[in-house]
Amino acid sequence: MEITFEHVTHSYDANSPMANLGLDDVSLKINDKKFTAIVGQTGSGKSTLVRHINALLKPTAGKIIVGDRVITSETNNKNLKPLRKKVGMVFQFPESQLFEETVEKDIMFGPMNFGFSESEAKDAAHKMIELVGLNQDYLQKSPFDLSGGQMRRVAIAGVLASNPETIILDEPTAGLDPVGRHEIMDLFKSLQTKGKTIILITHNMDDVANYADEMAVMSQGKLVASGLPSDVFNSQKLLEDDLLTLPQSAQFAQSLAKKYFQFDKLPITIDELSAEIKQQVNGD
Amino acid sequence: MNKLIMGRYLPGDSLIYQLDPRGKFLLTFYFVGIVFFANNVASYVFLMAFVLFAVYLSKINFGFFIKGLRPIFWLILFTVLLQLFFTPSSHPIWHWGFLTLSKESMVIASYIFVRFVLIIFISTLLTLTTTPIEISDSIESILKPLKKVNFPVTQVALMLSIALRFVPLLVDETTKIMDAQRARGVDFGEGGLIKRIKSFVPILIPLFVSSFSIAYDLAIAMESRGYKDGEGRSKYRVLKWSKRDNVTVLVMLAVTIILLFIRSY
């Protein structure tokens, strides 16, 4: 689904002395079937931005077009289910949303709310538990007996089980070990190749460089940059203003550039970096 | 969610803000007490004028005080209607079955209404201008004499301030969990009563789980920083009683004396 933000402003606690702008005139297009990363410092409005996509928050001004739905300040709270079925959302620390007696029931919770039959929901649970890297034995356990990492996987399975077209991920790998992080990120990438639109909020620039097709940079409620990661990471201005840090490969390239090497454009992934080095070494 | 909480602090600065919280706390209770001495038009007008003057001194937008009335609007309405129609009278203007309406009942109902407004305005004034932590500090300070009879004052004060600290945490947590379950297709406040009650299970269980874990983490964090309650803990926020607090007490005494003069006996 294509998602378009048109001059979206969101003010928290509007009409009170404590009002503050969560979003300030944001216009952004998130393309269908792409992997879009949203980065920015804590409090820059990333989470506020994505919460508008499934109408958990409504704009104070402006509008959001999600597929064939338009969300404005006047959007009614009724009849949002079809939208929320299409837009799945994995929150920060999603393990805190688990509540059922068994993992299976918890994964089935979303699909059942969205009108799946019991057997369809059960099928989805059986499929999803494998997809997130746990085996069928886990289905009958209590979610509260699992480790933190396993709970995270169950919670992600619970969101994916409703088969949403767009998946929003709010720092899905925060606090996971490196192996777990790669597994989860690879899972999301593979979902994208199967036709899903992925929106990822992250602080990890390597994840952006390795997985994202497009990226957006937020700062103080404003959208300060958007485009291809290779272009955005090459923007001197963003780096100087401390709005962005570089992925490891680009940092490595920057150090290399101090001696002998020259980069027209900073490579952002290991592959790009090694290809570039190979070419420069052999070329001389 | 934030709107549910009565007694929200509003950052600001004015004379009322600067008063010692202990004084504000006790005088608010005192005022609520003397409101019940008023029994004629003049005394209610006088108390109202005093409250409005205090509101003016606080420099807070009047709208916040009106908002303070909202949570108990139905209670006020119910009480006023009860007084209006159920006060027995020998000269009813109108009556139908057991309902009677008379001049006296109208007067009493309007007194009750003004009494509610006075009490809510003054307590809203206290909570808007005093942070919860200041209130808990003043409770501790006021309870101090009870230490003599082995009442655990410091523990009670600590429990109070932790409870207060948990309110915003739990509000945040609830909002977060509600959002997460909404994203999984829960519609709060839709369908029949049973369905509505059921829709809260997915919030309550995660909320219990996370408040236990927050409490557990907090206990460990406190212990690892060497928290030990009992004698000799110094205060980070020191309460200071100053001249203007004395003046406030005097003003309140004057209000009491004037009130006692103009009320009817």
From TrEMBL, chain A:
Per the record, the coiled-coil ranges are: none
Under the heading PROSITE patterns, the entry gives: ABC_TRANSPORTER_1 (PS00211), ABC_TRANSPORTER_2 (PS50893)
What class does this enzyme belong to in the EC scheme?
translocase
Provide the Gene Ontology terms for cellular component. Answer: ATP-binding cassette (ABC) transporter complex
GO terms (molecular function) for this protein are: ATP binding; ATP hydrolysis activity; ATPase-coupled transmembrane transporter activity
ABC transporter domain mapped to chain residues: 3-245
Instruction: Cite the Gene3D superfamilies for this sequence.
Output: P-loop containing nucleotide triphosphate hydrolases
Give the EC number(s) under which this enzyme is classified: 7.-.-.-
Instruction: Name the membrane topology term.
Output: Peripheral membrane protein
Identify one Pfam family in the record: ABC_tran
Query: Mind listing the UniProt keywords for this protein, alphabetically?
Result: ATP-binding, Cell membrane, Membrane, Nucleotide-binding, Translocase, Transport
Q: Which PANTHER family match?
A: ENERGY-COUPLING FACTOR TRANSPORTER ATP-BINDING PROTEIN ECFA2, HEAVY METAL TRANSPORTER
- Per its database record, what is this protein's job? ATP-binding (A) component of a common energy-coupling factor (ECF) ABC-transporter complex.
Q: What's this protein's family per the entry?
A: Belongs to the ABC transporter superfamily. Energy-coupling factor EcfA family.
Q: How does it assemble?
A: Forms a stable energy-coupling factor (ECF) transporter complex composed of 2 membrane-embedded substrate-binding proteins (S component), 2 ATP-binding proteins (A component) and 2 transmembrane proteins (T component).
Q: What is this protein called?
A: Energy-coupling factor transporter ATP-binding protein EcfA2
Natural source organism: Companilactobacillus paralimentarius DSM 13238 = JCM 10415
Automatic annotation (TrEMBL), chain B:
Report if keyword rRNA-binding is assigned.
no
Q: Does the keyword Acyltransferase apply?
A: no
- How does the protein associate with the membrane? Multi-pass membrane protein
Q: Where are the transmembrane segments?
A: 29-57, 69-86, 106-128, 149-171, 203-224, 245-262
Q: How does it assemble?
A: Forms a stable energy-coupling factor (ECF) transporter complex composed of 2 membrane-embedded substrate-binding proteins (S component), 2 ATP-binding proteins (A component) and 2 transmembrane proteins (T component).
Role this protein plays: Transmembrane (T) component of an energy-coupling factor (ECF) ABC-transporter complex. Unlike classic ABC transporters this ECF transporter provides the energy necessary to transport a number of different substrates.
**HAMAP family, alphabetically?**
EcfT
Species, as recorded? Companilactobacillus paralimentarius DSM 13238 = JCM 10415
List the protein's name.
Energy-coupling factor transporter transmembrane protein EcfT
Gene responsible for this protein: ecfT
Give the subcellular location: Cell membrane
| Keyword annotations of the record | Cell membrane, Membrane, Transmembrane, Transmembrane helix, Transport
Q: Of which family is this protein a member?
A: Belongs to the energy-coupling factor EcfT family.
Question: By its UniProt entry, which InterPro entries does this protein fall under?
Answer: ABC/ECF_trnsptr_transmembrane, EcfT
